[in-house]
Design a protein that fits this description.
The chain is an alpha/beta fold. It is built from 15 helices and 18 strands. The chain has two domains: about 230 residues, Putative sugar-binding, N-terminal domain (Rossmann fold); about 170 residues, Molybdenum Cofactor Biosythetic Enzyme, Chain A (3-Layer(aba) Sandwich). Helices cover about 40% and strands about 20% of the residues. A hairpin with a 2-residue loop joins β16 and β17. α7 packs across α8 and α11 packs parallel to α13. The structure holds adenosine-5'-diphosphate. The site of adenosine-5'-diphosphate has 23 residues, from α12, α13 and α14.
């Protein structure tokens, strides 16, 4: 297997989403946490997705980190590069989508770059250059109130123009509908007019297939995870990437399984309730006791140690909004988060050294804390449990072989925790 695609993702769960879409497109895929100390040369995969955390940091830092990842990727045989951002084009007035794309474009000497955030399966579509979430314009979808990067304009050409020194063009839906050759002709036309950044309309999965076909020769593509499937299929069809019977193949471990949940989203709370209702053992840890330095953490580790066996068990800090508010008023929100994340980090280490081989973590921040405590550098992407949440297996780092499923708060069906272990079995 020769690495073909290097993808740079601007956040962690976005990277996992991208990686699982590439697997759907037929590519064996590995996700790394930043640039691993030894680079990418020993990674056996068709695609690697580098998870950075550059979405909301200052633009110059985002550019520097993205270029560093690109330089490391270019030491491999990768011939295609993808800059992955959110399907709601999450960015601030200063970037970072425009500045990062411009830096990658220059470094790769690309002379035309598409911007295609659409993810129709999740209701994110682009028509006449305007981004929709379901049937609402982006700026009326709730995204206009996002705490870090409020999206107050659905006109992506205007949003991108404000983040770059160029006037973006548009490949409209009627051209996409006319097929890959029509899109290729539009690209030639844009280049002729010196348009080198273009927003691309896309309203359904058939459009993604057309675009995958039309873009498969471009050295640099930018967009959401939706485009990964069409591109992957095109690369397999064009024999750039070998065809695999099962690109999601893992070598799943059968040792004890544990769920760690630090997410307090409604979705996760319902998933914890469903797990309990189905007979799963759940231990609730109390953040205030943890903060007071009682023996709560040692007791939790002991409870888990005694309960490890063929059935998965769960340790949760997850609580209702009232419970969270009470904890936060006692400890402050930041301290509460820190105490819990640290507790999960320590528990994860203790569990793995106690023989746990399958770990499900709920919560974006919680997952970040666990992955860094376990010294995970790279994970191969396996079968999907629910959309956007695959099983993975650590292939580089301190706990090689460990199976990990990292679920961001709002993802997954109600029976996610039970289903996770069935999927792996
Ligand atoms: P999500 O993906 O649902 O946003 P995160 O893990 O990213 O989940 O964020 C949840 C945050 O809430 C974490 O910082 C976690 O430590 C914190 N938290 C978890 N349980 C509680 C609780 N009972 N009280 C207060 N904060 C909590």
């Amino acid at each position: 297997m020769v690495l073909w695609l290097g993808c740079i993702a601007d956040d962690f769960t976005g990277a996992t989403d991208m990686a699982s879409m590439l697997v759907k497109g037929g590519l064996r895929t590995v996700q790394t946490i930043g640039v691993p100390p030894d680079g990418f040369e020993n990674i056996a995969a068709d695609a690697v997705v580098v998870a950075l955390k550059t979405r909301s940091i200052p633009a110059e830092d985002a550019v520097a980190q993205s270029l560093e990842a690109l330089a490391a990727l270019r030491k491999t045989k990768a011939r295609r590069f993808f800059f992955k951002y959110c399907s709601t084009f999450d960015s601030t007035a200063a970037g970072n989508i425009g500045p990062v794309a411009a830096a990658l474009e220059e470094e790769l000497r690309a002379d035309w770059v598409p911007f295609c955030p659409a993810l129709p399966v999740n209701g994110r579509t682009v028509f006449n250059g305007h981004l929709f979430v379901g049937d609402s314009l982006l700026n009326e979808s709730g995204m206009e109130m996002h705490p870090l990067n409020p999206m107050r304009d659905s006109d992506l050409r205007r949003v991108l123009a404000a983040q770059s020194t160029t006037t973006p063009g548009l490949i409209p839906a009627r051209v996409v509908r006319a097929g890959a050759d029509a899109v290729r002709r539009a690209i030639v036309e844009h280049r002729r007019k010196d348009i080198h950044f273009s927003i691309v309309d896309c309203v359904d999965d058939a459009d993604l297939d057309v675009l995958g076909d039309a873009f498969n020769d471009l050295i640099l593509v930018t967009g959401g995870s939706g485009l990964a499937v069409g591109l992957g299929k095109a690369w397999v069809r064009e024999r750039r990437v070998e065809e695999h019977d099962d690109p999601a193949a893992l070598e799943p471990r059968e040792g004890p399984g544990v769920i760690l949940s630090g997410s307090c989203s409604q979705t996760t709370l319902a998933q914890v309730r469903a797990f309990e209702a189905q007979g799963g053992s759940v231990l609730r840890i109390d953040p205030v006791e943890l903060a007071n330095g009682t023996s709560a953490l040692a007791e939790a580790a002991q409870w888990a140690g005694a309960g490890l066996g063929s059935k998965p068990i769960a340790i949760v800090a997850s609580d209702t909004p009232d419970g969270v508010a009470a904890v936060q008023s006692e400890l402050g929100a930041e301290k509460a988060g820190q105490v819990i994340e640290q507790a999960f980090a320590q528990l994860a280490r203790a569990l793995v050294s106690n023989g746990v081989e399958r770990l499900v973590v709920a919560g974006g921040e919680t997952s970040g804390a666990v992955v860094s405590a376990l010294g995970v550098e790279a994970m191969t992407i396996g079968p999907e449990i629910d959309p956007g949440v695959p099983w993975t297996q650590v292939v580089q780092g301190e706990c090689e072989g460990l199976c990990l499923a990292l679920k961001s708060g709002n993802f997954g069906d109600e029976d996610f925790f039970t289903k996770a272990f069935e999927v792996l079995g």
